[in-house]
Amino acid sequence: MIELTATVRSEIAPTGTLRVGLNMSNFLLTRTDALSGQPAGVAHDLACELARRVGLPVSMHPYPNPGALADAANQNEWDVCFLAVEPQRAKEIDFTAAYVEIDATYLVPSGSPLRCAEEVDREGIRIIVPNRAAYELYLTRTLKHATLTREQGANASFRRFVDEGFDAFASLRPRLVSDQETLPGSRIVEGRFTAVQQAAGAPKGRPGAAKYLGAFIEDIKASGLVAKAIKDNNITGLTIAA
Question: Where residue 146 sits, what CATH number does that domain have?
């Protein structure tokens, strides 16, 4: 680990409390505790471990979606975030290496001729996707032929996929597994169009904090703490990043 000097600590938490931004729309990494109503989950547990190591109190700052969390990077609302790595966001956030990866792929309706992820980018194919998710930003950059429609949130995206007869619904594989169970005849295509890398990040302009955070992420992967957090929260669908 990087030495925790007074300068580094002041960059990590200028207010004296570690303020952690959490994307509450990622059900694999965050959830709202049923009893307390407070944030919980894998990202929460890792944030608490970071606070323990730097010897500071921690305050969780939940955001309804990744776009809102990323938008707050330069608003002095949080000191550390747990968020998917994406080039647009990296303009305002210094990301660590990923600690977990999540496959992103497509759900198609009954009778669809689409069999694998590579076949979906065709002329005339209509895809719906949650707006400002990391995989939406990826598809915006990379799709060449299919038409992409954006909707606020995965639940609303899935409803429109069903009601309006879209050809494909793009989302994280674990989410699609649960949606497939509610839509008879639907199918998840083979393969993936990307793997979403989940990382920690610090606002730009805090190089000491970014360096310490990067070392922290590598340590908790190597020591098994990420795996323990996943097991403790009974989560499936996450792969620990290399």
Answer: 3.40.190.10
